[in-house]
Write a structure and sequence with these properties.
Length: 141
C-alpha cells in the first residue's frame, strides 16, 4: 500500500468520478463556485501522486495538497495543461516552501518548482472562474 498521507484537492464536479476511482471521496461543495468540488483521500498511498500525475497527463484540471508521509514531505500540487506541478509545502499552508541551505543559499530546483507550481495554480484558479491569484476559500461554517 505504501506510505500514507492525507490528500485534498479541488476539481471540476464533472471530473469527480475520475478522482473517486483513484480513491478520493467528496468532502464538500459548500462555499465553492458552482461546478467545483473538494475531494479527499484520508489515507492516500504515497499521497496518491502517481494517480494524480496520470490524471494531469490526460488534461484534467485540479489543484491541492498532501501532508507529509513517513518517507516524504508534504507538497502542494496542480494539474494543468496536461502537466503535473508539485512543490514542497509547510504544514497548514497551500503555499510552497523552499529549502535554505546552511550557507544561506536556496535550493534552485525547489525554487523553480515553486514558481512553476504557483503559475499552474493560478492558471487553475482562472480555469475554475476565480480571479487570478485568489485562493479558493473554504466554508468554515
Amino acid at each position: 500500500m505504501g506510505d500514507r498521507a492525507y490528500t485534498e484537492l479541488t476539481c471540476r464536479e464533472a471530473d469527480a468520478a475520475l478522482f473517486e476511482r483513484a480513491g478520493f471521496v467528496e468532502e464538500f461543495r459548500s462555499g465553492l463556485p458552482s461546478g467545483l468540488v473538494t475531494m479527499v483521500d484520508v489515507e492516500a498511498p504515497d499521497g496518491n501522486i502517481t494517480a494524480l500525475q496520470t490524471l494531469a497527463s490526460t488534461g484534467i484540471v485540479f489543484r491541492g495538497w498532501h501532508d507529509a508521509g513517513g518517507s516524504y514531505d508534504g507538497a502542494c500540487f496542480a494539474g494543468f495543461d496536461g502537466k503535473f506541478f508539485e512543490a514542497p509545502r509547510l504544514d497548514h499552508s497551500d503555499l510552497p516552501c523552499i529549502e535554505v541551505h546552511v550557507d544561506g543559499t536556496v535550493d534552485v530546483g525547489q525554487l523553480e518548482s515553486a514558481g512553476a507550481y504557483l503559475r499552474a495554480a493560478d492558471a487553475v484558479a482562472r480555469a475554475f472562474g476565480l480571479p487570478s491569484g485568489k485562493p479558493i476559500e473554504e466554508d468554515v461554517t
